[in-house]
Specification:
CATH superfamily of the largest domain in chain B: Dipeptide-binding Protein, Domain 3
Distance between the termini of chain B: 46 Å
CATH architecture of the largest domain in chain B: Roll
Oligomer: heterodimer
Distance between the termini of chain A: 8 Å
Strand content of chain B: 15-25%
Number of strands of chain A: 0
Shape of chain A: globular
CATH topology of the largest domain in chain A: MetI-like fold
CATH class of the largest domain in chain B: Alpha Beta
Number of domains of chain A: 2
Largest sheet of chain A: none
CATH class of the largest domain in chain A: Mainly Alpha
Largest sheet of chain B: 5 strands, mixed
Order of helices and strands of chain A: HHHHHHHHHHHHHH
Strand order of the largest sheet of chain B: 18-17-19-15-20
Radius of gyration of chain A: 24 Å
Shape of chain B: globular
Structural class of chain A: mainly alpha
Largest interface: A-B, 53 and 58 residues
Number of domains of chain B: 2
Radius of gyration of chain B: 28 Å
Strand content of chain A: under 5%
Structural class of chain B: alpha+beta
Chain lengths: 321, 578
């Protein structure tokens, strides 16, 4: 097992270099650079723009730029942001944590609601409760998360009780430990709901489908026939088999953790990475984009690794030797 | 006391009355007269990019730096005239080349150090004119490649020696002054470009302004506190500023910002045309006032490519010769101007909150605005008649005119796809031009692509774009003089291609040297008339600025130029506001 993990890590290095090369090339091959916006300002001379471009080595061929970036990367230097004129790492730091909190909250909510809901719906197939869950899933799936966020904000602006966006109350610093947690939870509720509702709908449907598939198998019939209690049939025999494909899915979801919520972050004024990265891509803030792509790439590889390990644990039939 | 009983009891009642009344009188007085305290909560759509007032100039940065840093002069938000600020007075020599500024002696940096002439010399000599520090202020203080000479006379006197006469000099002196004692080390180490970035602890940013930054939570909020040692006093002798605290919430989505305003969390928002009908009926109940301050400064125009040059690599003309013949024909451009339905654009794109533009200066720019320019009222028949006179006739009856050589009147119209209002505007203009027999292929493209077309490739027919305007006409020189890089219709000309471009070049080089305001205005008036007759750019409409402000503030004088809080240090919160 350990050998597998080690091998995966070694393969990851050329994979990441490949991802970075692709991204770098794609950004550089599109016309223009970050300082294009300055070119339409009547008060800024071309000489000034040249000075800026020289400062960030944008006047050199992109292969040279890439090489310099890669060398710095191995020394732990992510480069400077053109926009913010500070180290990329110092911008990302706090926002990474904020995005992680939101992603974790919606991840937990989604999985802890969707899995039981899917099982429940499968067990009560075609009964009223199943139909109701499926109806809500359809509606949830077809509502974009940012739109739902907007609606939630509007609803709570009318009834009150929850902060309209943001992450901390203005008096956050003065709150007690428990007060801080409560304040954070209050702020988390709207964005978490906005992100999770759609995913719950999707995941619940997958879970239900898997479960129904497994319940059709003959060993379930056999288990029932030998007189096992129903809950044991469902939770011990059926569930363990039905959940396998979801573990693979979990690996993929992991890579989307940091980027999946950009629009909701914008709507809910959540100080996360998503909105920062969206602006960076649009304004061609090269090294900030690179940092985000690399993080996404790393998370993707880690997510797949975790999924593979979990699969071995959950299903004794799978082996990597 | 031996007073008669009646009088005694009267006195008692009287005294009780007085004690009851006096506090309420005080309360009333405080309700109307300025006083200290309270907080102002505003919303902004993006994080500041830097706290460095020299290297960063985009609005999200100046929003923050303008509270903390000040210039020798400043522009009054109402009169739009230059007035003394950190300098209490100045003189100019006979030849107009030597300017002497006398600094106030009561100005302190946030850390208690006094502001001196050394700081001013440092800001210009070591920062702005430093080759290692790319900054746009340098472009304002460079005339024909020559920089200004700045020298200290004594601790509170600075002398500027200019290479040429420079009429907007006092405007330029609004340049923020930065502290030498704080930044000298960074400049010597060559680190100034990355100094005072957004990762700097707020306490380390030292300015002289009315407010200092005390907290910045990225993506969430900026908090400013009143500078208790600010130099400015009100006319009644009160220490300014009045408001204790300013909070900026960073709310990326403007709809959410509006929601927060209606909810009472934010004190003021700028309204778009589409918001107006929703917000206006709630003025009473929401306890706020809507201020319409008139046209803003951001222009929108259509321009045709008149570049007669060739691509040096492929030897092909930037514009095909027959199209160039149309675009360089002033009558063609006039016909287009007559065909644009500005009223419809205002109705559809701006929800009625717009102003047709005919002069190249905004009507809000005051002194230099010339209202007496050639105006093109929407008139399709006139447009058709002009085209017919110029030989554009629909010979083959396909609804599209042909020129004398039989080329159909068809061209590409570009704009940047991100600007939804401009895309809408282009749709209307395209429709209007089709009505007079032109076939317009409308192509919204990425902003970077558009910039590349305008400044490097030059391979376009027509473009709809906008520029931010201002009050000082000289700062548009890069657009108007024929060798300018932003002279979009034919940039970087070696010699002016037409007589009228030659005249505009003369006006701009004379105007910048003309120190007499009236004669100077005469020159720029003429320039505005020429542009309206020759139509190198065909203006469409200006948006009107509309603000909603909670009824909480005193001393408020909103204008288009300055916005709501341009005189922030004098604004106070009314006591009777609940």
């Amino acid at each position: 097992m350990l050998k597998i993990i080690l091998r995966r890590f070694l393969i990851a290095i050329p994979q990441l270099v490949g991802i970075s090369l692709m991204t770098f090339a794609l950004i550089q091959l599109t016309p223009g650079n970050f300082f294009d916006t300055l070119k339409l300002d009547p008060q800024i001379s071309p000489q000034t723009i040249e000075r800026y471009e020289k400062m960030y080595h944008l006047n050199e061929p992109w292969v040279n730029q890439y090489w310099a970036w890669l060398k710095n990367l191995f020394q732990g230097d992510l480069g400077y942001s053109f926009f913010y004129k500070v180290q990329v790492s110092s911008i990302i730091g706090s926002r990474l944590f904020n995005t992680f909190i939101l992603a974790l909250a919606s991840f937990l909510l989604t999985w802890f609601v969707a899995i039981p809901l899917g099982i429940w719906a499968a067990v009560h197939r075609n009964r009223f409760i199943d139909r109701l869950i499926q109806l809500f899933s359809y509606i949830a799936l077809s509502t974009p998360s940012f739109f739902l966020g907007m609606i939630l904000l509007f609803v709570f602006s009318q009834i009150g009780g929850l902060p309209l966006g943001g992450m901390h109350s203005p008096d956050y610093e003065d709150l007690s430990w428990g007060g801080k947690v409560f304040d954070l939870l209050k702020h988390l509720l709207i964005p978490t709901l906005a992100i999770s509702v759609g995913s719950i709908g999707a995941l619940q449907r997958i879970m239900r489908g898997n479960m129904l598939e497994v319940l059709r198998h003959q060993y379930i019939l056999a288990a029932r026939a030998k007189g096992l209690p129903e809950h044991r049939v469902i939770y011990h025999h059926a569930l363990r088999n039905a959940i396998n494909p979801l573990i693979t899915l979990l690996g993929y979801e992991f890579s989307g953790l940091l980027s999946g919520a950009a629009l909701v972050e914008i709507i809910c004024s959540w100080p996360g990475l998503g909105s920062l990265m969206l602006t960076a891509v649009r304004s061609k803030d090269l090294y900030l984009v690179m940092a985000s792509m690399m993080m996404g790439g790393i998370l993707f590889l880690i997510g797949n690794l975790i999924a593979d390990i979990l699969l071995v644990i959950a299903d004794p039939r799978i082996r990597y030797d | 006391m031996n007073l008669p009983r009646e009088i005694h009891s009267f006195l008692r009642i009287f005294l009780v009355f007085v004690f009851l009344l006096v506090p309420s009188v005080f309360v009333l007085a405080e309700g109307v007269s300025p006083h200290h305290g309270g907080q102002l909560v505003l919303a902004t759509t993006s994080d500041p990019k830097s706290f460095n007032a020299i290297t960063a100039k985009e609005t999200s940065t100046t929003l923050v730096t303008s509270y903390m840093f000040e210039g020798l002069t400043r522009v009054n938000g109402v009169t739009m005239q230059v007035e003394p600020h950190l300098a209490e007075s100045w003189e100019v020599s006979e030849d107009g080349l030597t300017w002497t500024f006398h600094l106030r002696d009561d100005v302190q940096w946030f850390d208690g150090q006094p502001l001196t002439a050394d700081d001013v010399v440092f800001t210009f000599q070591d920062l702005i004119f430093n080759d290692q520090i790319p900054n746009s202020a340098r472009d304002i203080f460079t005339i024909d490649g020559k920089i200004f000479n700045v020298g200290k006379v004594d601790d509170h006197t600075v002398k500027f020696i200019l290479p040429f006469k420079f009429a907007p000099f006092l405007w330029g002196m609004t340049q923020e002054i930065l502290p030498r004692h704080v930044l000298k080390a960074a400049v010597e180490k060559g680190e100034f470009n990355f100094t005072w970035g957004i990762d700097t602890p707020p306490g380390k940013i030292i300015g002289t302004g009315p407010y200092r930054l005390v907290r910045y939570n990225p993506g969430e909020r900026l908090v400013f506190e009143r500078n208790p040692h600010y130099w400015k006093k009100s006319s009644e002798g009160d220490q300014l500023p009045y408001i204790e605290k300013i909070v900026y919430l960073i709310i990326q989505n403007v709809d959410v910002g509006l929601l927060k305003f209606l909810d009472g969390e934010v004190d003021s928002v700028s309204l778009r045309g589409i918001d107006y009908p929703l917000v206006k009926p709630r003025e009473q109940e929401g306890n706020f006032t809507i201020y319409e301050t008139g046209p803003d400064f951001g222009t929108n125009f259509i321009t045709f490519n008149q570049n007669s040059g060739k691509n040096p690599k492929t030897e092909e003309s930037f514009v095909s010769p027959y199209k160039l013949a149309w675009f360089t024909n002033v009558h063609f451009r006039q016909a287009v101007a007559y065909a644009i339905d500005k009223k419809k654009i205002i109705e559809i794109v701006m929800n009625g909150l717009g102003t047709p533009q005919s002069s190249s200066m905004s009507p809000s720019s005051g002194f230099f605005y010339n209202p007496d320019v050639h105006d093109y009222e929407y008139d399709l028949d006139k447009a058709r008649e002009i085209l017919k006179r110029e030989g554009f006739v629909d010979h083959n009856q396909d609804g599209i005119l042909e020129d004398l050589e039989g080329h159909p009147l068809e061209f590409n119209l570009y704009t940047n796809s991100g600007a939804t209002d401009r895309v809408q505007m282009a749709g209307i203009i395209r429709h209007d031009l089709q009505a007079i027999g032109m076939k317009v292929n409308f192509l919204p493209i990425e902003f970077n692509n558009l910039v590349k077309k305008l400044t490097a490739d030059f391979d376009w027919d027509a473009i709809i774009i906008g520029l931010t305007g201002g009050v000082e006409p000289h700062f548009g020189k890069n657009v108007w003089s024929s060798d300018g890089g932003l002279h979009m219709w034919f940039p970087n000309q070696a010699a002016p291609a037409t007589e009228w471009e030659k005249r505009i070049d003369e006006i701009f080089s004379q105007g910048v040297q003309e120190l007499d305001p009236v004669r100077r205005k005469g020159l720029y008036d003429e320039f505005q008339v020429i542009v309206s007759e020759q139509l190198p750019v065909i203006y469409t409409v200006l948006g009107n600025t509309v603000y909603a402000v909670r009824n909480k503030f005193g001393n408020l004088h909103p204008t288009s130029y300055g916005g709501i809080f341009h005189n922030l240090e004098e604004i106070y919160i009314k006591e009777n506001y609940k």
